[in-house]
C-alpha cells in the first residue's frame, strides 16, 4: 500500500530524479533529503539495476516515488506493467501518449481496481530533450508546442491524470485542459545550471509561475558539489511562488 502520509500533510513540488547507476549512491542521496521537501523519481537506469527493492527502500524512508519507466507497448502489455507499478505502491507512473488511445484507456481501466491506492497515471508528450528540428527528424512537422497540445488533449480524453511536458507549454495546457490536469515538467534549470541535453527548459520559479504542478530536477541537484544545498536553494526559491 502506498504511504500517503506525506501527501496528506503537504504536497512537495520538487521531484528529484535519482539518475544514478546503482542503489548505493541513490540511497546515499536519499538519506540526505527530506520527504517533506521533495519526492523522488526512479528511472530506467536505476530501476534496471536495482529494481523493486530500491523502490521499497525509498518508500521505507518516507518518500513518494514516481516510477518513470515511460511504458510504450501494446495495450495488454502496458496495462499489465502499470498494474505491476501499482502493486509496488508508487505514487506516480507513466506511459508514452504516442502509444495511443487504446493503450492509455487500457492502462487507466486496469488501475481502477486499485481504488484509492492507485498511482497517478500520466503520459509523456514530447521529450524535453527534443526541439522542433528533432521532431521534424521523426516526421512530425508541427512545432513541439502543437504536438504537446495534441497529445495532452488525447491524454485527458483518455481519463489520465496529466502529462509530462516542458514548462514552456504549461500556460497553453492549463488554458486548454484546465487547472486540475497535472503538468509534470522536467527540463528545469536554475539560471547557473548547464542545459546539458535538454532543449525546452525553464527556471524553477518561472516553471511554477507558468503553471507546472511538479518540477522534475535531476543533474542540477544530483551532480552539484553539495546536492543538499542545491535542493535547499531551489526549495527556498520556489516555496513562496
Ligand atoms: O520529457 C522528459 C521526460 C523525462 N525526463 C526525465 O527527467 C529527468 C531530468 O533530468 P535532468 O538531469 O534534470 O535533465 C531525467 O530523469 C529524464 O529521464 C526528461 O528529462 N524529459
UniProtKB/TrEMBL annotation:
SMART domains according to UniProt: OMPdecase
EC nos: 4.1.1.23
UniProt GO MF annotations: orotidine-5'-phosphate decarboxylase activity
Enzyme kind, highest EC tier: lyase
Domain Orotidine 5'-phosphate decarboxylase: 13-234
Active site: 68, 70, 73
Binding site residues for substrate: 19, 41, 68-77, 128, 189, 198, 218-219
Catalysed reactions listed for this entry: orotidine 5'-phosphate + H(+) = UMP + CO2
Keyword tags: Decarboxylase, Lyase, Pyrimidine biosynthesis
GO cellular component, one term: cytosol
UniProt feature coiled coil, ranges: none
Entry keyword annotation includes Lyase: yes
Presence of keyword Transmembrane helix: no
A biological process term (GO) from this entry: 'de novo' pyrimidine nucleobase biosynthetic process
Subunit structure: Homodimer.
Listed PANTHER family: OROTIDINE 5'-PHOSPHATE DECARBOXYLASE
Family according to the record: Belongs to the OMP decarboxylase family. Type 1 subfamily.
Described function: Catalyzes the decarboxylation of orotidine 5'-monophosphate (OMP) to uridine 5'-monophosphate (UMP).
Name of the protein in question: Orotidine 5'-phosphate decarboxylase
Native organism: Marinobacter vinifirmus
